[in-house]
Amino acid sequence: MLIATNNYNYLWDWQNGRTVYPSAPGAERIDIDPNGKGCHKVWKKMAGTGGRYDSFYPALAIGPNKALYVGVYGGLMSIRDTP
Prior knowledge:
Elements: E1 2-5, E2 11-13, E3 18-21, E4 27-32, E5 39-45, E6 61-62, E7 68-72, E8 75-79
Antiparallel strand pairs: 1-4, 2-3, 4-5, 6-7, 7-8
């Protein structure tokens, strides 16, 4: 399993402390095929819009409960798969 976030096109204005271009949104879960010769997308998730959901490049962390955690300007965000 691979979890990837999308930071495409993100640009931060360091002099003025603001986002110039937000990144394309979302994260994807990609599972590797059992034979190791391919992969397939399981989901693409939108996790919020606006500056408070800006994660500014930190890595996602996977907790012991299999939830994803990421720090954002608005605090800490958690994403969970539902069976």
